Amino acid sequence: MLLSEPSTPVILDVDTGLDDAYALMFAARCPGIDLLGVTCVAGNVGVAQVVRNTLDVLDMSGAAEVPVASGATGPLVDDHRSADHYHGENGVGGVQLPRSPRQPVEEPATEFLYRLLSESSRPVTLIALAPLTNIALLLRAYPEAHKHIERIVWMGGARRYGNVTASAEFNAWSDPEAAHEVLHNGIPITLYPLEPFYTVTVSHERVARYTSAEDARIRTIGQMLAYSQTRNAGETRIPDPTASCLGDAGAVMSVAAPELTTVSRLAVDIELNGSLTRGRTVIDERTSQTDTQEAGATVNTQVITAVDYTAMEQLFVNTVIAGEETCQKSSS
Fold this sequence. Notes:
This protein is α/β, with parallel strands linked by helices.
């Protein structure tokens, strides 16, 4: 059902592989989210492929009016290291998406972000599903941008162990310097780490139905989910090992339906130098934070520690597959 309250103004920052694509599909079709624009950064694949995937997914999802900007081609310090071994060479599992005729806007992502933030009549929620390079560059170039940002929701880090290394999650590992700058900027941050990331899935039975659907859009989504299924094999953090992980989409759903999340306020920092731990998010879950506060650790971070993943699966299906307008407005 449609809600009478206004939708939440949102800008997405993505490195569109597979799970970013699911997140874009949800954001594009959820009436509780007012998607102002999307910025792209090198991550899962190179930024040119990220832009192409993002435009294609938005148009396929009925959101051809949403502008897209190209951003950083690599992290602040290191060279870009892709995850095409997981997402496939084209970032979406080799699935051929309907080609969008659009091109990105001429503005680079930093200027585009600042313009959208400045023009919004209400503070904007930035949902970052990628390395935080674009966001760090925005805050370097326009320190006053924080006045227009309600909060940053970042899919990044892990409470326990990583996915690209034993210590680090991919988005944090890809540009830890950018993550460090953003975490210490003072803007309220909601962290969506790997623990909830892996729990939000689409069942094997549903994926099988979608891959044989008559509707071309649903069939394409099914093909992508089927590829994700194969890449999830062996990941013990997924409750049902036969399901397809939605990953980043859960972070967007946490904005649309915050009542489906469990959140704790915790000190979060990121390791920059360790030979084995570079990119690790260090989350202080001790009862007392006195020591970390004295050391200058960031304590303005809300960490999503759990989600109602069954309800999130249904929310995704209702919104993206069935098209039912059941999304909730964020109460942030």
